[in-house]
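Dear colleague,

Thank you for sharing your sequence with our group. We've completed the structure prediction you requested, and as agreed, I am returning the results in plain text so they can be pasted directly into your records. Please verify that the sequence below matches your submission; if there's any discrepancy, let me know and we will rerun it promptly.
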Amino acid sequence: MEKKKIYIAGPEVFAPNARAIGSKCEAICEKYGFVGLFPLDNMLTSSMDIYRANCALIKECDLVVANLDCFRGQCMDDGTAWEVGYASAIGKPIYGYMADTRSLLTKIGAKDKKGNLVEDFGHPVNLMIYESCVVILQGDFENCVRAISKQ
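Please find the predicted structure tokens below.
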């Protein structure tokens, strides 16, 4: 039986040690019987090359595991949000993970810094991301992959 492929979505591609993080995530996937597909954006030269390569990897995968933790602000990485939306649109199951799964309302308050209302559905992320995911687990990448392997 062919191993299922996991697209590894998250802002880790921006870390100075992105290659090492990607290798570690791929090893975790292997440990639980999957093949990890980590997008190494820094290996490509143009934004269009990165876009096309990431779209191709998402199409190739069987499921997506996404880091939904806040990045550069109060919400998740916007590139990861796009990848989740794209994967959802083409029918890929998405599994999210976060260190803090408290509701947005609890984390941010009733209004943001500009006075905008914060949605109150009890979700740890925007409802569009939440409803795109099979599940959002508290923990890290390995916790999420381990949980998927037990299904």
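Summary note from our side: The radius of gyration is 15 Å.

Kind regards,
the structure core
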